[in-house]
C-alpha cells in the first residue's frame, strides 16, 4: 500500500519535471523565433524596427507596442531582448 503511494508521488513528480522541460523548450523556441522575426522584419537593415516595418506581420505587428518599451515608435535590439525576457523568462540566444 505504502509502495503504491510512493510510486504515485514519484510518477507525479516525474510528470511535473517533463511539463517544466516542455515549457522551457517552448519558451526557448518562442524567444528565438521572436528574435529571428525581429531581424527578418528589419527591412532597411538599420538594426531597429519601426512600426511600419512590423505592421504587415501578423505574429509581431500586434505586439509592437509591448516590445517598444519606451514608446518612441522604434524597437531597438535592447528593447527586444528585454521584451523577450519579460515574456518568456529566457534570454534570447543572441
Ligand atoms: Ca529598420
Ligand atoms: Ca523604443
Q: Uncertain runs with pLDDT below 50, 5 residues or more?
A: none
What's the total number of strands? 2
Give average pLDDT, whole number: 92
How many helix segments? 4
CATH class: Mainly Alpha
Walk me through this protein's architecture.
- By secondary structure, this protein is mainly α.
- The chain has one domain: Recoverin, domain 1 (Orthogonal Bundle).
- The protein contains 4 helices and 2 strands, in the order H-E-H-H-E-H.
- The protein has helices at 2-41, 51-55, 64-67, 77-88, and strands at 49-50, 74-75.
- Strands 1-2 form a two-stranded antiparallel ribbon.
- Helix 1 packs antiparallel against helix 4 (77-88).
- The chain starts with a helix and ends in a 6-residue tail after the last helix.
- The relative contact order is 0.15.
- The model has no long low-confidence stretch (mean pLDDT 92).
- Bound molecules: calcium ion (2 copies).
- The site of one calcium ion (CA) has 7 residues, from strand 1.
- One calcium ion is lined by residues 42, 44, 46, 48-50, 53.
Briefly say what this structure is.
With 94 residues, the chain is mostly helical. It contains 4 helices and 2 strands.
List keywords for this structure.
94 residues, Recoverin, domain 1, binds calcium ion
Amino acid at each position: 500500500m505504502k509502495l503504491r503511494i510512493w510510486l504515485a508521488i514519484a510518477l507525479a513528480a516525474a510528470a511535473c519535471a517533463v511539463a517544466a522541460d516542455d515549457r522551457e523548450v517552448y519558451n526557448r523556441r518562442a524567444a528565438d523565433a521572436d528574435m529571428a522575426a525581429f531581424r527578418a522584419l528589419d527591412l532597411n537593415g538599420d538594426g531597429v524596427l519601426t512600426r511600419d516595418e512590423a505592421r504587415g506581420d501578423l505574429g509581431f505587428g500586434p505586439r509592437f507596442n509591448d516590445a517598444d518599451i519606451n514608446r518612441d515608435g522604434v524597437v531597438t535590439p535592447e528593447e527586444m531582448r528585454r521584451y523577450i525576457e519579460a515574456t518568456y523568462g529566457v534570454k534570447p540566444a543572441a
